[in-house]
Amino acid sequence: MVDRFDEHFFLIAKETGGIEGLLNSLFSFLLRRTDYYYECDPGDKMGFPPGVALNMLGNTFKKYQDEHYKVHKKKSAQEYKEKLEIYQKKQKELQEKKKEQEELKKEIQIQQQQQKQVQQNENQSQQDVQIKQEQNQQNNENLTQKQKIDPYINTYNGGETEKYSWSQSSNDVVVTMKVPEGSNKKNLKVIITANTLTVKVKDNVVVDGKLYDKVKSDESIWSIEENLLTITLEKGQENIWKTVILGDKEIDATKVENTKPLDDFDSETQGAIRKIMYDQQRKQQGLPTSEEEQQLEIVKKAWNAEGSPFKGQPFDPSKFNLSNGQIQF
């Protein structure tokens, strides 16, 4: 039986790395232990005539190749080449698709990492704010009863918190708070930046936070008199604040009285305001505005001008309409 040595051949192939190793072992054996490669002379009792050994090998190979073709279709070199090109094309497409998927996966991972980092930063920021608030609350609880806000301190256009009262105009914010007896400029520390306000009384933090809006720190001042600390913050721009420190109690900005004396404006602005007020009053009385009066004077001059269809007729304003500075007949 031809298959009785299969186990030996499997072992040799495994030990030598495959079919090529098996063949190397076989032909090495024929070389070393047989006269297979010996080309004999006439009358020799060993070896084979020239070419016989190679023909023997070819015939044996062809015998089993024909057995193979009985089961499997024979393939031509051209057919293999065509299939190889198709295979290589598909492999290239797969590699490109795999590369795209890896790049997409990498991009998704980067985005996820960025989102995770943003979330971590937000969480950390919230924790920092919470810790700061807890520290401020603890420090405030340690202040004496005399640090509570005097109910008679001005809160015009402002409000009050447990730590301070405040008022405002369109240009500034005034913060007032009671401080312990014996407080002075040596044991008080007020730090004003464009965006923050910090107040320390004898190393206790009373106020520390971000302002509602920017201020002019170089024009902002503070003073202390009879245990009353007054801080005047010069606003960076004319506007209405809802609170002094972000996170503190806010007021209803719609209830803020936001008028400004006319004399506070420059002469050019005063003139413009007076003109607007005059025009509004004229409209309420059913009279033409200053601009409409100017238009009316122009029409009067043109009424009797040469070529006018109204020349010689009494001036009649009802024949035209003044609207938004436009003359309509």
Strand order of the largest sheet: 1-2-3-8-7
- Approximate shape: elongated
- SSE string: HHHHEEEEEEEEHHEE
The amount of helix comes to 40-55%
Task: Please count the helical segments.
Answer: 6
- How would you describe the oligomerization state of the chains in this entry? single chain
Extract low-pLDDT stretches: 143-152
Class based on secondary structure composition and strand pairing: alpha+beta
**Beta-strand content bin:** 5-15%
- The pLDDT mean sits at 84
Task: Give the biggest beta sheet.
Answer: 5 strands, antiparallel
Number of strands: 10
**Taking Cα atoms only, what radius of gyration do you get, to the nearest Å?**
51 Å
- Cα separation of the termini: 124 Å
Task: Describe the fold and architecture.
The protein has 329 residues and is of the alpha+beta class. The strands form three sheets. The chain has a five-stranded antiparallel sheet, with no helix packed on it. A hairpin with a 2-residue loop joins strand 9 (321-323) and strand 10 (326-328). It has helices at 6-16, 19-33, 52-69, 77-142, 267-284, 290-303, and strands at residues 159-160, 165-168, 172-178, 188-192, 196-201, 204-210, 221-225, 228-234, 321-323, 326-328. The protein is 43% helix and 15% strand. The chain contains six helices and ten strands; from the N terminus they run ααααββββββββααββ.
List the helices and strands and how they pair.
Layout (H helix, E strand, L loop, with lengths): L5 H11 L2 H15 L18 H18 L7 H66 L16 E2 L4 E4 L3 E7 L9 E5 L3 E6 L2 E7 L10 E5 L2 E7 L32 H18 L5 H14 L17 E3 L2 E3 L1
Antiparallel strand pairs: 1-2, 2-3, 3-8, 4-5, 5-6, 7-8, 9-10
Helix pairs in contact: 1-2
GO biological process, one term: protein folding
Protein name: Nuclear migration protein nudC
Subcellular location: Cytoplasm
